[in-house]
Design a protein that fits this description.
This is Methyltransferase domain-containing protein. Keywords: Methyltransferase, Transferase. Pfam families: Methyltransf_25. This protein is of the alpha/beta class and 272 residues long. The protein has eight helices and eleven strands. Strand 6 and strand 7 form a beta hairpin. The two termini are 18 Å apart. It binds S-adenosylmethionine. S-adenosylmethionine binds at residues 16, 19, 30, 34, 62-64, 67, 82-85, 88, 105-107, 126-128, 131-132.
């Protein structure tokens, strides 16, 4: 048995409201339908892993301004989006007429009015789990709110290859190879992301954890992984250029097809 849960609780100091000052910036960037990465990569992967069925109750945790809502509703399922930012929820309600949007902290679902144990068939974290800390509190809460046999789908930046401020691309001239540099991986990190244009005080924090933390914490909470996807980005179209530029564009496309951008997984709550 791993004791990730107790470690995480000792660490419970992060405020959930970090995104509130960034709401206008985020909404402007995402729009109603999400970024290109959302539309082409992240949402299709989440919907495939989720396999939402008509009438199912789905909880979108860290829903932001609700980009997932129309997809879940179109599948005939019942959508609830939860977020800690009132401004993002206001935008969610403005963008999406259907679905329910609730203000709350993902680490404390057990204390949130209207939440009951075993009430959802599935839960989703779409690019939100790396904004939440500590992980064990979040996973205990999600395990509590899911029915036995219910599933959780998580899509995040791939923690092995995209370590905020501690990884990046490089070019090796002799081999004409574009490579991925990883400076740190095993140590969990809290990384303040840079302030966004037009935002005086907005800084969100990204939490890096190695893959073993995710898998062991899910297992500790009775959430057993049954499928995983490692998702690469799409080709850039610069291969039509000339000379070195062309060589570099090819190497870039190859690297983009080999080194994943996102990791997505589905885990299922054990039936006791
Ligand atoms: C990167 S945004 C992703 C939003 C949305 N899922 C999307 O893909 O556009 C992360 C979201 O997680 C929310 N969040 C962070 N910590 C939270 C917590 N403890 N409880 C609920 N929401 C939280 C933030 O307010 C923010 O809306």
């Amino acid at each position: 048995m791993h004791n990730a849960a107790s470690n995480g609780h000792r660490n419970a100091r992060h405020r959930a409201g970090g995104w509130e000052p960034l709401a206008d910036w985020y909404d402007g960037w995402m729009g109603k339908n999400g970024s290109l990465h959302h539309q082409r990569l992240a949402i299709p992967a989440v919907m495939e892993l989720l396999s939402a069925q008509p009438g199912e109750k789905i909880l979108d945790i860290g829903a932001g301004q609700g980009v997932l809502a129309p997809h879940v509703i179109q599948a005939g399922a019942d959508y609830t989006g939860l977020d800690a930012s009132p401004s993002l929820l206001r935008q969610a309600r403005k963008h999406h007429r259907q679905g329910r949007f609730l203000l709350g902290d993902a680490r404390n679902l057990q204390r949130l009015a209207g939440m009951q144990a075993n009430m959802f068939d599935a839960a989703v974290f779409l690019l939100s789990i790396q904004d939440m800390d500590p992980l064990p509190a979040v996973m205990e809460a999600v395990a509590w709110v899911l029915r036995g046999g219910g599933r959780v789908v998580i899509l995040m930046l791939h923690p092995c290859f995209r370590v905020p401020r501690q990884s990046g691309w490089g070019w090796q001239e002799e081999r004409k190879v574009r490579f991925r540099r990883i400076d740190r991986y095993l140590t969990p990190l809290s990384v303040p992301l840079k302030e966004y244009p037009g935002q005086g005080s907005g800084v969100s924090i990204s939490f890096h954890r190695p893959l073993q933390h995710y898998i062991n914490t899910l297992a500790d909470c009775g959430l057993l992984i049954e499928q995983m996807k490692e998702i690469t980005t799409y080709k850039t179209s610069r291969e039509n250029t000339q000379g070195l530029q062309r060589v570099q564009a090819r190497a870039e496309n190859l690297a983009n097809q080999e080194i994943p951008l996102f990791l997505a997984l589905r885990a299922r709550k054990a039936c006791l």
